[in-house]
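May I ask you to review the protein record following this short note?
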Amino acid sequence: MARSFIPTLITTISWEGFHFAGHEIRITEAKDCYGAVVWPSALVLCYFLETHAKQYNMVDKNVIEIGAGTGLVSIVASLLGARVTATDLPELLGNLQYNISRNTKMKCKHLPQVKELCWGIALDRNFPRSSNNFDYILAADVVYAHPFLEELLMTFDHLCRETTIILWAMRFRLEKENKFVDRFKELFDLEEISSFPSLNIKLYKAMKKNRRSA
């Protein structure tokens, strides 16, 4: 999960380099925007996807990432063979699209898509339940905008089918994180599948409660 910072030399754009799925991934961050920075939870989730590629096979799977930020997780999922939709707030889409395009063009089986997603807003119009066929929902460090946690929960619920698997890396900072997990468990079966105590990060797998197969 190592990263390397490349300073600006000739160009005016600096980037950080990561190595996942057999590729060097160059990520440009927007330092003035909280959501466009690579946080440790994203590295944890990328590392997990790479090292558990047989157990959680991404090839030809329909995957959506919420709160995609810089796009690193979506890029790794794409390099692993997934059909990816990377989503975030409108002000982040430019940098997100730039990173995804530069790191996936001519490298991926399926070209990733970038879409706007404001939690809890216009979900039926932009992501109608009838066309939600996501095999996986990926999320890294999305529990930070505390005033919008109910909308986040609503978004998870809306995007999930009975068979959808959520892979969610979360860094615990405040008591509100624990409260959100409690609310989340009212709607989803939640299993901790990995832990990184030194980073205070946990990785969860979740599926909707009351599934037909349950």
Summary: The beta strands are 3-6, 15-20, 23-27, 62-66, 83-88, 113-116, 136-140, 165-171, 188-196, 201-208. The chain has one domain: 34-208. The domain at 34-208 is CATH 3.40.50.150 (Rossmann fold).
